[in-house]
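chain below, 55 aa
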Amino acid sequence: MSAPCPVCKKPSTPEYRPFCSKRCADVDLQRWLSNRYAIPAADDDSGPDEENSED
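prediction:
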């Protein structure tokens, strides 16, 4: 059993996996290109980039 299409929740098809159609794949791409989706940045506390660091 395959996972549902992340855009419309219909069953996905092997040709457009994980989407059900080219339309849903294009909708998802447009959402990424228009910044509706974002990957959160992780805080990096390991570097000496802090302004108040003592040397």
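The CA atoms of residues 35 and 41 lie 14 Å apart. DSSP finds one helix and no strands in the chain.
thats it, cya
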